[in-house]
Amino acid sequence: MNQKGGVGKTTCAANLGAALAREGRRVLLVDVDPQANLSLHFNVEIYRLERSIYTLLIGQSSARESILLECREKVSILPSNIDLTGAELELVNAVGRETALRSALLPFLQEEPFDFVLFDCPPSLGLLSLNAIAAAREVFIPLQTEFFALQGMTRLMEVVDLIRSRLGHTVEITGIISTLYDVRTNLSREVDEEIRRYFGDKVFKSIVHANIKLAEAPSHGKTIFEYAPDSKGAADFEALAQEVLSRGGPDAQF
Predict the structure, then answer these.
(1) How would residue 249 be classed by pLDDT, with cut points 50, 70 and 90?
(2) Is the model's pLDDT at 86 over the cut of 90?
(3) pLDDT, tens digit, for every residue of 160-204?
(4) 3-state SS string over the chain?
(5) Global pTM?
C-alpha cells in the first residue's frame, strides 16, 4: 500500500504474486481498488462480474463464490470493479466496518489454505485500505525513487499503528520496495540511498527498475513472466520473490 498513486502498487502485487506462484506457492490476490487494475492485469472482464469484492463486503456473495480460483496456475484472484466505490459509504455505519474483509475471507481461508494473500490497495487511506491492513499481517510499501517519495509516509505509518492499537491486530510494515528506479539518473540512486538510510533493513535489497515491458504487460492482461519472461522486469520480480521467501513471514494466522 501507499496513498500515492503511480508508485507501482499493482505492478508489485501482480508480478510478485506471479513470481511466488512460479516458486510453487499458492497465491491469492485481492483487488481492493475500485479502479480494478489488478483484475485487469489478469484479463478479468470486470464489467461482466456478477460477484466481486464489493458483493462480498456487502454480504451478497461468499468468498468462494467471489474468488476466481486458479486464474493462472497457483494464482487465484478476488476481483474488483467500479461498484467498489460504493462500499465505503455502505460500510461506514456498519459494526466492525474495519474488519469486514477479514471476516468475509476467514472461513474460506480456513478451508482453502494459501501460502500468500496479497492485497492491492487503492491510493488512499480510507476504509478500503483499513480493511486490507486489518486482514493482513505485513505491509509492503512500494516507494518510487523520486523527489517526493517519503511524502505522506508519516501518515501511512500512523494508520498502521492505529489498526494495531485499536483492533489489537498484529500488523507491521516489514517491506519497502524501491520502484521505478532509473539507472540513468543520479536522482534514483540518491533517493534509494535516502530510503535505505531512513528505513534500514526493512528495505528490500531487490529493486524494481523502470522497464517498458512492465508498463506494457497489463494492457495485454498478462504478468511480466507471460509477456516478457526474459526482460529486466521479470528478473527484478524473480529476485524480489526470492527475497520474500528468504525472509519467511509471521507464523500467526488470520
Answers:
(1) low
(2) no
(3) 998 888 888 899 999 999 999 999 999 999 999 999 998 999 999
(4) CCCCCCCCHHHHHHHHHHHHHHCCCCEEEEECCCCCHHHHHCCCCHHHCCCCHHHHHCCCCCHHHHCEEEEECCEEEECCCHHHHHHHHHHCCCCCHHHHHHHHHHHHHHHCCCCEEEEECCCCCCHHHHHHHHHCCEEEEEEECCCCCCCCHHHHHHHHHHHHHHHCCCCEEEEEEEEEECCCCHHHHHHHHHHHHHHHHHEEEEEEECCHHHHHHHHHCCCHHHHCCCCHHHHHHHHHHHHHHHHCCCCCCC
(5) 0.93
Q: And the C-alpha cell for 104?
A: 468475509
Residue the block writes with cell 474488519: 99
Measured CA to CA, the distance from residue 39 to residue 21 in angstroms comes to: 17
